[in-house]
Known about the structure:
alpha+beta, GMP Synthetase, Chain A, domain 3, three-stranded antiparallel sheet, 3 helices
Amino acid sequence: MKNHITTKWLGEMRFESTNPSGHNLFIDAGEENGGKGEGYRPKALMLSGLAGCSGLDVASLIKKMKLEVDDFKIEIEANLTEEHPKIYDKVIMAFHFYGSNLSEKKLQKAVDLSVEKYCGVMEMFRQFADLSIETYYHNK
Length: 140
C-alpha cells in the first residue's frame, strides 16, 4: 500500500499538504524562523502522528475489550538534539486514562499491544529515538 501526499508552497514559509483522508493541513514556520505560525510545525506534527497512531490502536482495543473509559489523552515530551539536523533523541509518551471503573490491567494490555505490536509510527520512532512509555490511571 502506498500513501501519496502533495505539499504545495503557498508563499513565504507556508505550505498546504494533502492527506489520503481528504483533509488538508497547513505547515508554517514560527515567526522566529520567518513564518507567521499559521500552521503545524513539521517536527511537532511527527509527534502528533505518533500519538494519533497509538491513540487509534488503544481506542479500537477499548471498544473491542468493552472497557469503561470516560476519557483518555496522550501527552508527549520529546527532546530535540542541538546540532543540525535536529532530531528527536528521547521521547516520553504518557497515556492518561480517566473513569470511575477503570480496568488497569486490561488498559495496560491495550497500551502494550499498541506499543509493541500495532503502531507502525512507534516502530519508525524506535529507529532514531529512545522511547519511554508511561501509563496513568485517574479513577474518579
